[in-house]
């Protein structure tokens, strides 16, 4: 008779008591010992209220690049701006990149979708081209010339 299901489903108190008993038994058996994160503080407790906390954590934990609100992505791009320009080989590419960056900053300022505010400044194309050219000439002057190649006759040393 004890295997027969009860005529009425258990109430919330009975369910809560059953769950609490199961948890206490698992604790006594040591099922919760040595879990990952045991004894570590829980992220986000006691901190400031950031509405984008979850996206920031996901980007950090997954080491994602190229994802996030436009304001954050533009800030990151702004911080890496000189390195990105230095990777370009032609002045026309630098001008195109700076113009595209300025267009995206202005477009992000116009969006009313919420999220963090866009505080990234636009860049002056002429100033950036001059700085790129100066860094390029400075790097060329400071790097030693490659060693001369030894000529070989028919692949012999």
UniProtKB/TrEMBL annotation:
InterPro entries: DnaJ_homolog_subfam-C_membr-28. Residues 136-157 are annotated as: Disordered. Residues 19-85 form the DnaJ homologue subfamily C member 28 conserved domain. Residues 148-157 have a biased composition (Basic residues). This is DUF1992 domain-containing protein.
């Amino acid at each position: 008779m004890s295997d027969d299901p009860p005529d009425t489903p258990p109430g919330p108190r009975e369910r809560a008591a059953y769950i609490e008993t199961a948890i206490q038994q698992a604790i006594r058996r040591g099922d919760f010992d040595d879990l990952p994160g045991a004894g570590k503080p829980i992220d986000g407790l006691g901190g400031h209220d950031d509405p984008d906390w979850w996206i920031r954590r996901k980007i950090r934990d997954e080491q994602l690049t190229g994802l996030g609100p436009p304001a954050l992505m533009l800030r990151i791009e702004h911080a890496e701006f000189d390195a990105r320009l230095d990777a370009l080989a032609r002045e026309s590419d630098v001008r195109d990149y700076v113009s595209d960056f300025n267009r995206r900053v202005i477009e992000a300022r116009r969006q009313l979708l919420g999220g963090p505010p866009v505080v990234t400044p636009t860049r002056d194309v002429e100033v950036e081209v001059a700085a790129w050219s100066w860094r390029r000439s400075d790097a060329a002057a400071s790097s030693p010339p490659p060693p001369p190649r030894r000529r070989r006759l028919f692949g012999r040393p």
